Amino acid sequence: MMITRYTQWLFTSVLLLPVFYIQAQTTSTMAGEYYLRGVMEVASGFKLNPDATFQFFFSYGALDRYGTGQWEEKEGKVILNSKPQPARDFALVTSKKVPGNQITIRITEKNAALLRFVHARIGPGNTAEMLEADQKGMIVLPKQAIDSITLLFEFCPERSSTFSVADTTHNYFEFRFEPWLMEVFFRNFTLQVDKEGLYGKHPLMEGAEFHYNK
């Protein structure tokens, strides 16, 4: 007896139905809000959505950071991934040679309260020390040979942005924040599942194990 393509498709669909049901059931069961427990003065957690997307938040004092992406449950673990992290959190606005015997690094930002939290280091330089910007976003130092500038935002200490200086005669450099400065990026970030919720590392804080209760 000949088996039509429709019959084959119908047979295959029936076999796959339990698989799809189990996957949907797992996603539905794991979906929810998971809040960090046991860390004073810090509010943080994950929201796992039924459509397999997630939101992350972190709040400490005046500092707020966030992240988004996709999640999946696999073998008793929740795995988080987001879009790739950009190479830099700052953008070079202008670089030029100006009169004077100084090197000036300037940060521009509408929210002036953030400017003093930027730190910079020049290379090759004679020190690895990070220099702090003033309340106007200015860092001024004696004129010297320079081939790179590294910038770091104090509220995002886990990553820095390095720029090569194309013209070593330049002594004025102006930068701005990129829109994703406060965003947290995930690459196979894994949390274990238990009866209370989730546990494992935190994307921003040091420590081997944190608990996130549902």
Keywords:
elongated; 1 helix; 16 strands; disordered N terminus; Lipocalin; 2 domains; 214 residues; mainly beta; 4-stranded mixed β-sheet; Immunoglobulin-like
Description:
This protein is mainly β. It folds into two domains: 31-82 and 184-213, NlpE, N-terminal domain (Lipocalin), CATH 2.40.128.300; 90-177, Immunoglobulin-like. The protein has one helix at 5-30; strands at 32-37, 43-48, 53-60, 63-74, 77-81, 90-96, 102-108, 118-124, 131-132, 138-142, 146-153, 161-164, 172-177, 189-194, 197-200, 210-213. The strands form three sheets. An eight-stranded antiparallel beta barrel has the order 1-2-3-4-5-14-15-16. The protein is elongated.
Unreliable runs:
1-25
Output mean pLDDT.
Answer: 88
* CA-CA gap between termini: 55 Å
By DSSP, the count of extended strands is: 16
Integer-rounded radius of gyration: 25 Å
How are the strands of the biggest sheet laid out side by side?
A: 1-2-3-4-5-14-15-16
Structural class, by secondary structure, is: mainly beta
Largest sheet entry: 8 strands, antiparallel, barrel
Helix segment tally: 1
CATH topological fold name of the largest domain: Immunoglobulin-like
